[in-house]
Known about the structure:
By secondary structure, the protein is of the alpha+beta class.
Amino acid sequence: MKTLYVKFVVVTIGIMLFSGIISFLISNTYYQHKLKPQNDQKITNFAQSIASFAEEHPYIDLRDYLQNVSSLGYQMYLVDESGEESFFGAAFRDEDLSATAKEDVLSGNVYHGILHFPGETFVTGFFANELRNTIGIPITHNGNNYALFIRPDIKLLFNEMHLLFAWLLVFTIVLSTIMVVISTKYLVKPISKLTKATKSLSEGKFNVELDVASNDELGELSNSFLTMATKLEQMDDVRKEFISNISHDIQSPLSNIKGYINLLENESITSKDRAQYVSIINDEIKRLSTLTKQLLLLASLDRNEDILKRKTFNVSEQLKELVRNYQWLMSEKDIMLSYSLLDVEINGDASLLHTVWDNLLTNAIKYNKQNGSIEITMEKSEDSIVVTFADTGIGLNLKEKERIFDRFYRADTARTRTIEGTGLGLSIVWTIVHLHNGDVQVTSTEGKGSTFIVKLPIK
Ligand code: ADP
């Protein structure tokens, strides 16, 4: 995380430097093209007014006069035809000036050194304290010809401004660097938190804490992350519960079988007891076999979504056959069954839907009372059918109703404890119906009976 922070700071400062350089180049171009000619013109005008004053007042001492003017903030260089030179005001850093320039001015022309000062030296061209960077003007005084070279004394005129700007620059750089360092820390903080949370999640700790309250993308990311962590935790819980359920459901019939085999090894038991033990062992084996079959079915339903082997078949025929098969079980409990079915064909997996009706009917029998009744009805709308299994059995309370489609869930009451089951039947029903894009619901009153309603699309 440190690297992201460092990167952020470095990149921002880099951007600041880069834009500084670009702005400098732009302002330099502006000086070279716009300000330099203006500056040249301004100083030329000023020099001309000095020249005309000197010409109009032949009685003044030229050198005194120039000395005076220079003290107002100008640097000057005067040369006459005999080559005699004098300087006024602050000294020039570089006193190089071509002889032709001097002769040219002495012969009456104006020298535009400021305008023609080389452009490559950035804005500093304005500050270059060189004799070449001046305006040269011819002066005639008392019949003598002079050449006067003049430029503003930048140091004198702009010294305070210089300092002001330098401090402004220094403060801007220092302050913005500090701000960048602090604000980056603030910006990167939620990311550090997220990284920490991800790490703890990858170590299997699901109860991550994230107090990112911001409304921006990072806040949204944190919220999604928390939702994901909760979902993962739920899935992990389901997985753990699933494994412990399976282990238990396999272990208990196995230990029962082992126990009864031990009893059978005792040769002195009566043949009646022996028959009973064998029957119990058989039941346990049947239970194990049902369990593994159901688990295998659930696993294959989970694994792929296009497991359905679809064909068009008649549902009422299928239901009638099922009812015939369970007639014996119902007569054992004296249960009355009635049905009103429609002659409808639907497109679906006949074998899996058979499992659905089988589970619902056996439940309606298993959880029914002696002398109870079962009613199977069917309704058809334009694009779907609704099959209802209503029984007059023990029913379900609200809490049980919410969970009966969960894997391994069995309503554990005194009434159901003696009834054989794995708790997988209804979750298989739910999965198969949803694979067909249908839906299954239950309404129930405790002690009165339950109704399971299956809705399936026809196509
Ligand atoms: P089981 O193998 O226990 O029957 P199911 O998944 O088919 O498993 O059913 C889950 C639980 O739902 C049952 O244990 C039972 O408590 C309850 N249940 C299912 N069908 C009915 C019904 N028709 N009437 C009352 N309770 C039912």
